[in-house]
Give the backbone structure.
Amino acid sequence: MGAISSYCIITYSEVRFSMTNTQYALLLLRRGLRQRCPVCGRGKIFKGWIKTYERCPACNFAFEREPGYYTGAIAVNLVVSEFLIAVIAVPLAASQSVSLTVLIVLGCTLPFLFPLLFYRPTKSLWMSFDHFIHPVSSERV
Ligand SMILES: [Zn+2]
């Protein structure tokens, strides 16, 4: 614990306890969309395109709160990706206006493309959602 952690505890307490639940949910949503730390909102979650920091570079909060923490994010990513594939592919296949080759190309690329596109947003939004449901206590920061 250093000066940075103390600052985060003060920021967390000031932010969380001066807002309504709706305001706090919107704050966490903004932080999730910006892919920032749900505790301080300053530190980036990703250090590359895929790789995640173990701890927030700004406040030192441990991002992976327990083993298997990101399983929910993976599940959300899978559901969103499969839903969009169904929304795109099923009407195209049913209309019979698109060639079989195009359908095969879409069917082979979209199941890989969408999970990669949604990887970062679902992971950061999952962290924000989890943070709203299971807020961090001052002792854990
Ligand atoms: Zn942080």
Q: What stands out?
A: Helices lie at 3-17, 21-33, 71-95, 100-133. DSSP finds four helices and no strands in the chain. The two ends are 9 Å apart (CA to CA). Residues 37, 39-40, 42-43, 56, 58-59, 61 surround zinc ion (CB under 6 Å).
